[in-house]
Amino acid sequence: MTRVIAHRGASQAFPENTVAAFRGARAMGADMAELDVRHTADGQLAVHHDARLADGRAIIEVAARDLPSEVPNLEEALAACDGMAVNVEVKNSSRDPDFDPERTVAAEVAAIVGERGLHDGILVSSFDVGSIARVRQVDARVATAWLTTLLPDAAGAVASLVEAGHRALHPYDPIVDAALVEVCHRAGIEVNVWTVDDPARINELVGFGVDGICTNVPDVALRVLGRS
Fold this sequence. Notes:
single chain; 228 residues; alpha/beta; TIM Barrel; eight-stranded parallel beta barrel; 8 helices
């Protein structure tokens, strides 16, 4: 069965990456919620997509207590996702002010999963290969996935994922076709596609046999799947 993954929660109906968005996704019946984590100035894990707040402040320069009230920490977000699996995306881009070559956020997320025994319900992903590698260094039982917008050598990329022990590929929707899904599945790699809101495309991807569809409209995806 193809999983419905609520992108930053039910982010069309509610402000993204908020407790309300995660609770909304759960109420709609989503199988999984996707969220983003970054460090604050005092080393807390804030759930926010962009490196900067709407007022321009870099999250890495703001203490957790000074964040806007609608920005949850990871603990609050996980509580709001109770009953769903969670895809925790570690943000660590060299273009952002909070880039960390030590991949500390990834290590801390892996430690939380291990300490709380959440291995069956958490998938950690990142565009940064170093971050998902760091997760596996801390706890190889934590499932990991690589996010990408480009895939010029699908077979080579999939082979690298298998060798490193990662579970899934998270490709950008326009690069996904039946052949890519077949290559991944043949190697035992799951395919979770982002970000897909169009019902016709959702239906096509289901036909390809993708494992998950990350969407801003989980209610729409569930209707396409006949699960509303």
